[in-house]
Amino acid sequence: xxxxxxxxxxxxxxxxxxxxxxxxxxxxxxxxxxxxxxxxxxxxxxxxxxxxxxxxxxxxxxxxxxxxxxxxxxxxxxxxxxxxxxxxxxxxxxxxxxxxxxxxxxxxxxxxxxxxxxxxxxxxxxxxxxxxxxxxxxxxxxxxxxxxxxxxxxxxxxxxxxxxxxxxxxxxxxxxxxxxxx
Length: 182
Known about the structure:
The structure is a single chain. This protein has one domain: Nuclear Transport Factor 2, Chain: A (Roll). The chain is globular, with a radius of gyration of 20 Å. By secondary structure, it is α+β, with helices and mostly antiparallel strands. The protein contains four helices and eight strands, in the order E-H-H-E-H-E-E-E-E-E-E-H.
């Protein structure tokens, strides 16, 4: 019995025998440009690929300027990340596109070279972790909505615990061998 190909399989760039559609190729190129922008900022590139009404659903623990829409918010996220990390790089492991949504499975890597600061909803500093000098590499999934050839919305799933463990942000603990009789 022959099996029909999955119609959604053609939307996975680089993972199928069927060549990706032109729309998927354009989405792949746009995401590649977006991740390169987060590695090395360029104002002209930001204007070309980020919509004025762009929103980042992941900005709540970031500094208040990162919570604003558009290029200014993305630049504030860039500045926040680059204050804490050197050599930031995203390797794009897989990209899947369907409709106006594109998902990138990535590996983010870098070195923790400055304080990592998180913020509360009211914009106050919630925590600050001093630089460890350690390197990390963690998996992330980034969801982008694209309209009119620009990025307009971002959501993500990240391995923050794995990153924190690689950077030594948690003290190692061992389970107790037993409890004393009481």
